[in-house]
Amino acid sequence: MPRLITILLVAVAITLGSVLPNSADGRTRPKTWSFDANSGADFEAQAAEVRKEMGSDGRYGAISVDDRKAVEADLDQIEALLDAKDSPAKLNDQQQVDLINAQERINAVLTKNDGNRLICTMEPRTGTKFKEKVCITQSERDTIRRNSQKAFQDQLMKGAATMPPGD
Question: Is residue 19 within a helix (H) or strand (E), and if so which, with residue range?
Answer without folding.
Answer: strand 19-21
